[in-house]
Specification:
CATH class: Alpha Beta
CATH architecture: 3-Layer(aba) Sandwich
Strand content: 5-15%
Oligomer: single chain
Radius of gyration: 18 Å
Order of helices and strands: EHEHHHEHEHEEHEH
Distance between the termini: 7 Å
CATH superfamily: P-loop containing nucleotide triphosphate hydrolases
């Protein structure tokens, strides 16, 4: 089974993708994780990615396709493939379709997690992480016992906020999503060959997980 998981930034795609991989045994290809790994490698491609990511901008199609094509080729997808964060533009979707058609492994469906903009802004801008142990917190939904300090680390390890988790950057990312990525959903709907289903992402993670799993089972 080959599924594309879509939705605006902050809708919970990463959280739900991990649960779906555990439940269905699919290979998970997250563009965000793959880009961060490439960025950390210090390669020329990683440096290009770093410039776009630090500014909260979408990476150009040719760069995205180059990175993701390599990952798709190298992945062990015998139990299925879950694409998270790719494709984000119609040209990317067309390139993906071409690759999967050549491999005779077309998509089985597209699952779109939808959420309100204001809820997304609150989710992302409230995220904090420990620079020492990596534990994730949220100022409202998962606060530390001591304000701004990690619960697990000895001493006063102050929590940090990612540079791209500010309200301005989040709203820019949302605007880019509606301009460039929503047309991908329309592209798949027009095709008629791939079923597109929507899941309400405004609920609690367990509720969204149940609805997302049900949507995937309906596609099987």
């Amino acid at each position: 089974m080959r599924i594309v998981l879509m939705g605006p930034p902050g809708a919970g795609k990463g959280t739900q993708a991990k649960r779906l991989v555990e439940r269905f045994g699919m290979a998970h290809l997250s563009s965000g994780d793959i880009f961060r790994a490439e960025k950390a490698s210090g390669s020329d491609l990683g440096q290009k990615l770093a410039e776009y990511m630090s500014a909260g901008q979408l990476v150009p199609d040719d760069t995205v396709v180059e990175v993701m094509a390599r990952a798709i080729t190298q992945s062990d997808a015998q139990a299925g493939l879950l694409l998270d964060g790719f494709p984000r533009t119609v040209p990317q979707a067309e390139a993906l379709d071409e690759q999967l058609d050549q491999a005779e492994k077309p998509l089985d469906g597209v699952v779109v997690i939808v959420a309100d903009d204001e809820a997304i802004v609150e989710r992302i801008t409230g995220r904090r992480s420990c620079p020492s142990c990596g534990r994730i917190y949220h100022t409202k939904f998962l606060p530390p016992r001591r304000d701004a300090f990690c619960d697990d680390c000895e001493g006063d390890v102050e929590l940090t906020q990612r540079t791209d988790d500010t309200e301005q950057v989040v709203r820019e990312r949302l605007a880019a999503y509606y301009q460039q990525t929503e047309p991908v959903i329309a592209y798949y709907r027009r095709q008629g060959q791939v079923k597109v289903v929507e899941v309400d992402g405004n609920g609690m993670p367990d509720e969204v997980a149940a609805a997302t799993a049900q949507a995937i089972e309906a596609l099987a």
